[in-house]
Amino acid sequence: MIDGFSFVNKESLLPILIGGLIVFGCYFWKESTNRKHGKFIINTIVAFLTITALVLIVLKPTKEVEINDRQGLLLTEGFDEQQKDSLLLRYQGIKELNYNPNKSIGYKLDSLTGLFVLGNGIKPFDFELFKNIPLTYITAKEPYGITDFRYKKSIVLGEKLNVKGIYNKPLKGTMLILEDAGGNGLDSVQLDRIGEVGFSLEAVPKVSGEYVYLLTEKDSVGVKLKSEPIPVVIKEKEPLRVLILNNFPTFETKYLKNFLADNGHEVIVRSQLTKGKYKFEYFNTATTPVYQFTDEILNKFDIVIVDSDIYFGFGSMLKKRFEKSIRESGMGLFIQPSGFLFNLGTDTSYFKFERDSNHEVHFETFKIKLEKYPYGFKGPFSFQPIAFGTTTTVAAYKQLGLGRIATTTVQNSYQLLLDGEGEGYKWMWTKLFDKISKKKNTSVEWEAETQVPRIDAPFDFKLRTNLEEYTVLNENDDSVAMLQNSMVPMRYLGTVYPKKIGWNHLKIETDSSSQFPFYVFDSLVWKSLTSSKTIAANQKEFKSGLKHNRAVFVDRSISPILFYLLFLVGIGWLWLAPKLSTDK
Amino acid sequence: MVSGKQYLMKFNRRWQLMAYLEAALIALGFGVLVYFLLNSLLSGLLAFVVGLLVVALIKQPWKLNLNRTSLYIDAHVKEASFSTGLLLLPENTLSNLAKLQRCRVSNELKKRLGTITPPNKIRQAALVMFALIAVGFAVHKLELFSKVDSILGNTSTPEEIQFVATDTVTRQTIIPKIIEQAITVYYPTYTRQGTKTSIDPNVKAVTNSRIQWVLQFDHLVSQVSMERMGETIPLTKVENTYQIEVSLIESGFYNFTFTNEDGTVFTSDLFALEAIPDNHPEVEIFGLPQYSYFDASDAKKVELQSTISDDFGISDAYIIATVSKGSGESVKFREEKLKFHEQITKGQKKIKVTRSLDLNILKMEVGDELYFYIEAFDEKEPKHNVTRSETYFAVIKDTVTELFVVEGTLGVDQMPDYFRSQRQLIIDTEKLIKDKPTIPTKEFKFRSNELGFDQKALRLKYGQFMGDESEMEEVPSEIITEASGEEENHEDGEEDLLKGYSHDHDGDNEHNLVPAQKSEEAEDPLHDYLHNHDNPEESTLFEESLKTKLRKALSIMWDAELYLRLYEPEKSLPFQYDALKLIQEIKNSARIYVHRIGFDPPPIKEESRLTGSIKDVGNFRKNKSMEVVQPFKAMEDAVARLETLISGNSIFKEKDKVLFTAAGIELARLAIENPGEYLQLLQGLKGIENNTQRTISNYKFVQKGVLSALPQTKQLPGSKMGYADEINSLFLKQLETYD
Q: Considering only CB atoms, which chain B residues are within 8 Å of A158?
């Protein structure tokens, strides 16, 4: 209160004061009726003091004092008993606290000048609570089991689901099996080494949708120990819109266009017959001839495949228009190679080439070989290689704004089809086109900040959008408050507290297509991973080393004996005084 | 006193009767218990009889005789004063006192015996009977035994086709049951399996069998049909049964459906139809190495032993032996079909056959080779299955060839051919010139002369084309003799075997540039081409210039031969080169001639040629929509749908039924190869489809199965979704500026 004074029973200050005043008032009235005795004033003063003492006894006054030796010991999940005991021994009178993320602990911390944290540590979302207290985090032992785990949570159909992780101290012969949603084993690995063992498992999902894959752990004799869920969203690829421009029909183009058209892509092929006359072929699309290359027309396509003779024969205006389209709309351009391409200067051809006199290239993945032009890509920074598992780079792309330009040194790839290596052919071109195809624009992008969402725990997510006004809705269609980044206005942060285990969805109210599925885990799964992550976060947050204790001001109650004495003396006087006066 | 004894006998009969009654009661209880347990009257009766006999044997009521009766009465009736024994003795043997006592006892018994009952356990027996009946009744009511039965698998066999209503609401209605089902498999006649009748609806039979189902229902039903791999075949009604007959061509699944009187549709489980293919016969040859070698002096016999087996019977088997004679280009083949020593009777499942092959009998000589294998047929209809064994070889070693191989460092072309080509002659001549200093003169002359001969042969060969008749008859026969020196002992009818396989390399017509028969028709090869002018100069086989060229070449060849014969190969060489050049030209012109026939160019409009006008050339347009084939679309969708059903976020909707039906059809197509593997999965799918098994566990089971049945994902390009971030765009732009 004033100057560091306060009362324990602060809340009942007023009634007690009033009560005291009434008592004093009564006394004053009683005494004033017979003030014949000369001690009225003295008595009144004594009475006042006595009643004040009484009031203070009830109110229990405190005084703020500064202390700096009051330590606390916070025990979190997975703490070591030995560590706890030695700390208790070392710091006599240390206050022991148990950490439960679901219970408030803040008020208990106020009186502590320093805090030791044992075990896996404080949940990252509670860090804010411990900001003001000097905290020493004594790391727990790294838990057994999977301590690090990464995979792509959202993939497209045809892409590999690759899960990588680290297993800490496996028992010899422990098996990890990647299982699909139904429980069919897809890939497995046996952990034979000791210590921290890295593992990597992969599989190509067969169907699209939201699935929970499983990472099952079995011991060396095949007894299932546990299964950890791996939620994956598998999306289907959208068909491409492809424009093929050729100076004259070639076999390469013929097979390429058949491959694309057979799989439902929209393909327009324009091959020149003679000056100003073209052969147009339309597959899965409306008949709209392409004569002029306006921005509007070019922006319609995801990929333009053009032979080098045509493309580099374009006037600079036209080429600029193509480049603009690549830069701004993200269109992909694939230049079909010819001898002409390799002899162009770097400025014109986008790529640097050098002669390597290799006329053949082997693809290790499919054990196939193909003819190639005797040139290789030059310079490590002028291109991005497209990996085909070959010793030299045979295909590469270059980023141009949002889009990409690619070419290859492989020729006559259709030979694969003729040799019956259809799968190899598909694989090669799929890889290439997937690298350069234009991305279908979405209005929002979601990103989970919390790696392992749990029920009733905060789930933080990031949102990037250029929508001016929007509302994010949670699973129950309640709106979620979003925090806009002050520097980058299209970035937002949000937090929800999921209420059910399993798939939860966030969505934009006006846009039903932009849903964000996230999986909320049961508290029993991924324990070692969560522990390990918490330990790491705590280590980062509370850097090691001893902290100096802070000084805290504590209201220490003033000893009531003084008030008792005062009261006793006062009462004694008030009892004795009339008697003395009457004696006189 | 007779009456006393009669009383005793009466008592004795009562006693016996009661014992029998006791036995009957217990047996009755046992019988009823058994009847309740087994639910069969017959076994109940049997149990009663058995029980009766057993209890009677234990009690042995027939052993209760008068002596025991009298002892009992003595013990229990005081008034009898232990004297009932007197009643059993003949009266005349007794003393007077005894007679008196007997009379007294007799009178006493008359009074007493009515009151006492023989010892019995009728009450206990009745209790046992009631207890047994009660237990039986309880077991019957609680159906304890039927549960045990079903565990033991003795109840209504799984073979019985069970039907389930597809509409769960109307479960209360009576489910018509099959009271009789008969599945008859008519095996193809050649298998000699006849027909087999069973009640197991999972049918396994040889391909091409006919299968007949006869079903009889206990209630009136309609629209009975069989659903088989997506097609519905109605059953025909014959009297009060339903019948269907189907040919088993390929494996698959089927189930039955019918509608009862209320219009409720019932469906059965899925059953497998497995077509077992008729296996090919198996041929095993023992004790014979793949290659046998014989010296000319050996016995040259191959003992062939073999076992041929087939699952339904062998129809025929024999050995195909091929003898090859000669080597290189002059190789000749002769094929023979050899029977085994044993007679092969059709329809045997396993036979052991032998055959000894005497190479001499096969007219094989030194250097010849024999290839043989066994061919076996089974009786499958309409086409037999054929199996061929591996090919075995028998070779008679040719010592001459071996010698030749050892000294392989000799010249390149050891084997004299029909005749050498001009190019070869040049090579040989050059070689001869080179070798001249190192070889003896005799050898040199010999070789030069030989080359001269070859040059002559070549000249004569080309002479044929010119119609040089004079030498034609004489010379070719010479050449043939030379050649036949190589291929000894042609046998009649064997010569032509080579024709199809051989390729005339050393002739002048190496690449069949000129039609082959020109040279083969030795008699008059030009017959078809001549206008029969007799004069070779007049022939129109070649154009004028060609003819002169050939004539010129022939005369140059003359000169070349001349110098070779004069042992001056150096001088001969220029002529040979000239000849080669000319022959080459002639060949080329012949080639042009052939080409001219093959190509017929369209007439060129001279007036529009090279004008550069493309006035009439238009754009070409082609529009095509490809249908993307997704053979497992429904299965994929079903997996996704099941995932939501399993998670409990959604309930089964009517439209899902269509999806699962389609998935079932797709899966069935996939499952044809090995129906056993997918039968359960298909049944699970069917269960979801017709609402008999819409449970989470079944959803999980089906999802797992379908996922594993789906083929690997194909690699196909496509565009992904992405968000174009402004910051990223700015970053990329900056990056490019500093690139």
A: 713-716, 718
The complex scores an ipTM of 0.78
Place of tokens 């005339």: B504
Number of domains in chain B: 5
Q: From residue A123, how far is each of A73, A95, B217, B248 by CA, in Å? A: 16, 21, 69, 67
CA distance A83 to A246: 75
* Window B:68-127, CB contacts with A under 8 Å: none
Interface check A235 vs B, CB under 8 A: yes
Q: Are B256 and B226 in contact (CB under 8 A)?
A: yes
- Does residue B125 form part of some domain? yes
- Say if the Cβ atoms of A206 and B721 lie within 8 Å: no
Is the Cβ pair B725, A278 closer than 8 Å?
no
The C-alpha atoms of residue B408 and residue A565 are separated, in whole angstroms, by 137
Q: How many CB pairs under 8 A join A and B?
A: 183
Are A265 and B733 a contacting pair at CB < 8 A? no
Chain B residues near residue A433 by CB distance under 8 angstroms: 717
Assess whether B286 and B271 both reside in one domain.
no
Choose among A277, A502, A503: nearest Cβ to B619. A277
Is the pLDDT higher at B361 or at A150?
A: A150
Residues of B in contact with A289 (CB under 8 A): 619, 621
Give dist(CA B304, CA B371) in Å, integer.
Answer: 13
| Average pLDDT value for chain B | 76
pLDDT in tens, B409-449: 444 433 344 456 888 888 888 888 988 888 888 889 888 98
Residue A330 structure tokens: 């993200």
**Using CA atoms, how far apart are residues B709 and B646, in angstroms rounded to an integer?**
19
DSSP B651: -
- Predicted local distance difference test score (pLDDT) of residue B674: 66
- DSSP helix, strand, coil percent of chain B (3-state; round to 5): 45, 20, 35
Cβ–Cβ contact A15 with B under 8 A: no
Identify the bridge partners of residue A165 per DSSP, sorted by sequence position: A149, A199
A444-520 folds as Immunoglobulin-like (2.60.40)
Return the residue in A186, A207, A235, A514 with the most chain B beta carbons within 10 A, the one to mutate for interface testing.
A207
Q: Which residues of chain B lie closer than 8 angstroms to A181, CB-CB?
A: 639, 643, 703, 707
Contact between A122 and A202 under an 8 Å Cβ cutoff? The reply is: no
Q: Looking at residue B489, what is its pLDDT?
A: 41
Other Cβ atoms closer than 10 A to B128 = 18
- Residue B264 and residue B221: Cα distance in Å, rounded? 10
pLDDT for residue B507: 45
Q: Give domain limits for chain A.
A: 2-65+557-583, 145-237, 241-436, 444-520
Structural domain of residue B576, as residue ranges?
Answer: 418-488+505-597
What architecture is the A145-237 domain classified under in CATH? Answer: Sandwich (2.60)
Q: What's residue B143's pLDDT?
A: 67
- pLDDT above 90 for A333: yes
Residue of A nearest to B700 (CA): A182
What is the predicted pLDDT for the residue at B521? 40
Which candidate, A425, A435, A424, places its Cα nearest to that of A365? A424
For residue B623, the chain A residue with the least C-alpha distance is: A282
**B28 and B123 belong to one structural domain:** yes
Query: pTM (2 decimals)?
Result: 0.58
DSSP state, residue A372: B
Output the pLDDT for position B520.
41
B230: left (phi over 0), alpha (psi -120 to 50) or beta: left
**Cβ–Cβ below 8 Å for B621 and A445:** no
If one looks up domain A241-436 in CATH, what number appears?
3.40.50
Single out the residue of A378, A334, A330 nearest to residue A354, CA to CA.
Answer: A378
- Residue at B14 is within a domain: yes
